[in-house]
Amino acid sequence: MAAISVIVPVYNVEPYLRKCVDSILAQTLPGIEIILVDDGSTDGSGFVCDAYARNNERIRVIHKENGGLSSARNAGLDAAKGEYVAFVDSDDCIAPEMYQRLLCALQESKADLSICGYQKVKAPGAQGVANTYACETMTGMQAIEKLYTNDYVYFTIAWNKLFKHRIFDSLRFPQGKLFEDGYAAFRYYYAAQTVVCLSECYYFYLTRNDSITNSQLSIKNLDGLDAEVDSIDFLKAKGCFDLLTKAQTKYASAVILSLKRYSLKQKDVRLRFRTIKKDFIRLYPSMMKNQVLSKKEKILLTSFAISPRLCKSIITVKKL
Asked: Which of 72, 183, 227, 295 is positioned for an S-S bond with 9, CB 3.0–4.6 A?
């Protein structure tokens, strides 16, 4: 059985795919299987995947209809045979020692998942901004608390981590949503007894102008609010009431910030905020009891509960 199953969702990334796969094949740790999930690519990505599989027995290819990142990751999880699992985006690449270091740290700490730093790059091979965290071992609940700090990205994203396979025995990524890692993070930390963090950067994340998450006003970015609602519901269901205040405060800030950024003159935006308001109304009474939120914030939230248009007008007139 493979030690680690590395799952790579692939969709129309032919110019980047070879560099990505080559970086995984170059790992210093033996016993790695690579699962390339061709998510209905319309360029030559699927042919590149098949060519690699023909030449290397460590590589398996899954061809499927397009279903999005979560769907592709889930297909890979269903096929994974390794004791551990990891994820790599198909336009990124990793350092040769990444999984050896992550596995060593995980085993030495008797942890359920390990995390390393990452570096953003604008072009393959270029240097970019590093996102790191101090070497530390913590509980899964302590890791959840980190999701409400300035280090939340390091702790949220899935691709800078190595997981014990059992973490995903009853966990899959939500399909049809952007910010899928925001949904999953709470769940895999809740399932983990121990988490170990490494400060070194072993993952290189390529920022592309054509990606959905880099399109600042894409309506899909409002899916982030759904992820915030999900976190509140999850924490409440698990009885993590000490974290609910932080989750509510983050959600309230995200709603107001989103309303500031988007124009309600666009019909699709108005309709989207209409669905956002339904969840908001359900959570509104408990947010009004939140002692961290200021009086001004609660006034804005109350106006949003009445009408997003009203709230937007107050923000505009008061230049908030």
From this structure: 72
User: Mean pLDDT over all residues of the chain?
Assistant: 94
Dihedrals phi, psi of 65, to nearest 5 degrees: -65, 150
Rounded (10°) angle between helices 241-261 and 295-306? 70
List, in sequence order, every residue forming a beta bridge with 194; answer none if it has no partner. Answer: 139
Pairing of strands 84-87, 136-139: unpaired
Look at residues 78, 103, 79, 98 and name the one whose alpha carbon lies nearest to residue 88: 98
Check whether 154 has a pLDDT greater than 50: yes
Assess contact for 287 and 256: CB atoms under 8 A: no
45 and 11 in contact (C-beta within 8 Å)?
yes
> What is the per-residue DSSP string for 20-89?
HHHHHHT-SSSSEEEEEEEES-SSSHHHHHHHHHHH-TTEEEEEE----HHHHHHHHHHH--SSEEEE--
Identify the pLDDT of residue 126. Answer: 62
Structure tokens at 69: 């990142």
Phi, psi angles (nearest 5°) of residue 203: -115, 135
Q: Quote the CA–CA distance of 122 and 129 in Å, as a whole number.
A: 10
User: Count of CB atoms within 10 A of residue 182's CB?
Assistant: 21
Q: Which long-range contacts (CB under 8 A, 24 or more apart) does 154-159 make?
A: 154/115, 154/117, 154/118, 155/115, 155/185, 155/189, 156/181, 156/182, 156/185, 157/118, 157/181, 158/73, 158/87, 158/184, 158/185, 159/86, 159/87, 159/88, 159/89, 159/92, 159/118, 159/203, 159/205
Element (H, E) at 200: strand 194-206
Beta carbons of 131 and 154 less than 8 angstroms apart: yes
pLDDT tens string 236-276: 999 999 899 999 999 999 999 999 999 999 999 999 999 99
pTM metric for this prediction: 0.92
